[in-house]
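Input set for joint prediction.
Command: fold jointly, output tokens.
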Amino acid sequence: NAGVTQTPKFQVLKTGQSMTLQCAQDMNHEYMSWYRQDPGMGLRLIHYSVGAGITDQGEVPNGYNVSRSTTEDFPLRLLSAAPSQTSVYFCASRRGGADTQYFGPGTRLTVL
Amino acid sequence: GEDVEQSLFLSVREGDSSVINCTYTDSSSTYLYWYKQEPGAGLQLLTYIFSNMDMKQDQRLTVLLNKKDKHLSLRIADTQTGDSAIYFCAETMGAQKLVFGQGTRLTINP
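tokens >
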């Protein structure tokens, strides 16, 4: 199993550009989540999904969209990038409920 | 509210024990976790404890849970240079999500 994979690893955007961060898992996990990590603030939940076709907002959803058309994929879209979205983004998945959560390697995004 | 608090830095000498502390707010949390993050990497689950337990030991790691004070600690015995990392505690918040602390950066001095 590849586990949780994320692409790209690094990305630089200009303010106002849009892009999609990709996340995929091959463990047939129902639950998938996106977090952002900022210095001194730990990980904050952006959006999460409890199964294909079901998504919900986390703690800091503004400026981000998600969709879950398949169990495997959970892309995160930035519609109009802002410097405040400069961060490291982690995707995670777990089988369900309070099960162990597996993290991807992260995407480091810089918005100029 | 959802709040998990950790001190940001800890420095210990190689071979000593490290104790990383965490306080949480949700008394209904089912599981509490410790994750390790090495530079440039994602988070790796180290260990977890069920809320009905007081202690869990796994080789060099000991987790202590004080439910009355909502206090969680991670003790690393015989700390090695490979233990240098950021350590996050996290609590389950309902069935859908984890809430993370800010992370404690552990530095090992020779």
